[in-house]
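Course assignment 3, question 2. Fill in each field.
Student: A.L.
Task: Predict the tertiary structure for the chain below.
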Amino acid sequence: MAGIQMVKYSEGDIILKEDEINEYLFKIINGHAEVYIGYRTDHEALIKILGEQSCFGELGMLLHKPSIYTVVAFSDVLVMKIPEESFGEFVKTNHQVVLNMLRNTTETMLTFKVHIDLLLQEIENGNKPNETTLNNVKKLIKGYGIYKSIDQAVYDLNKKEYNN
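Answer field:
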């Protein structure tokens, strides 16, 4: 299929970088990769480890949005890079990829929900959210239309504290 590439990464190589727009869906053929939020920062968090047949990068490929995580080769990794223009044809012969993407998206949505619920609970209880928690949630949901409402909630909370 046109446009599909096989790419090798060595242990420690960054395959996909947080906050950068990526135009490919990645499918791990051999090896393992780690998924981080806040990679190489004080707020680094390992989210999961991906193995063979796992897919990632669908956010950038399908929506042209920046990645919400960094993917690093845990070992030597061989990945298939699938561009958007080849995705339809690729899916016709690789139905499992769609299931893997749905699982990944669903896991990501559940992670968002947990973080958002914790943040909103802090705000509803009248507590100023922990700055680290707030920044992590903002990074997770940046570009999804929720960011401004959380900023507004924190602004309103700060304004309320200032007026009291």
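Instructor remarks: Strands lie at 5-9, 14-16, 24-30, 33-37, 45-50, 55-56, 70-73, 77-83. The chain is about 45% helix and 25% strand.
Grade: pending
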